[in-house]
Amino acid sequence: MCTGKCSLFIAITLYPLVLLSIICNILLFFPGWSTKYVKEGHITDEVKYMGGFVGGGVLVLIPALYIHLTGEQGCCANRFGMFFSIVFAAVGAAGAVYSFVVALLGFSNGPLCQIQSGLWSTPFKETNMTFVTKPEIWSTICIKPTDVVKFNMGLFVTLMVASILQGLLCASQIINGLVGCICGTCDNKEEN
Q: What is the pTM of this model?
């Protein structure tokens, strides 16, 4: 496989991961499938950092678009274009790392929820993630929003998996771009 086709494969694979990251981040703003909590400001801090939207979304989408151009037989399918794809892929990898770190923090700290005393807090923050293995306590500690622990855990884990895949794809594009810089993009057309 030549470097141009590899770039095209990487870009096309990044697009659904970008969409998944953005959707997960947007959904995290609506725990319990309600707008009530976002209006009242009862949203987990890590959701407000918008790791899925900014990191796994925009910071990966822009490189994916450019990487796609290097895979096409156009203006960017040359050694210089492959060099710039290395820079863009590094930006994408940084976005994936940001998304992963924010999702990991959101997962490990647990959700912001209303506890039995009526106060809003993150009751699982100091538990060193032991709450993950005890689903029977989730609904007794977090009263509102309903099933917020499952909701946050599912979406943050999805963001972590998506960001790992994005980081691996961007790292492979860095290697592919380096090879494309040195060896060219295989854009020689056979003449009949």
A: 0.87
Per-residue CA distances from 105 to 9, 50, 55 (Å) = 31, 12, 14
Phi and psi angles of residue 115, each rounded to the nearest 5 degrees, phi first:
-95, 180
Condensed to tens digits (0 to 9), the pLDDT of residues 107-121 reads 988 888 888 888 888
Max alpha carbon distance in the chain (Å)? Answer: 80
Residues 6+ apart with CB under 8 A from 48: none
Q: By the 8 A CB rule, do 125 and 139 touch? A: no
Nearest partner of 12 among 51, 53, 69, judged by Cα: 69
Using an 8 Å Cβ cutoff, are 156 and 106 in contact?
yes
Helix (H) or strand (E) holding 120: strand 120-121
Residues 81, 4: Cα–Cα separation, whole Å: 10
pLDDT digits (tens, 9 = 90+) for 41-61: 888 888 889 888 999 999 999
Bridge partners (DSSP) of residue 144 are 114
Token reading at 169: 């794809």
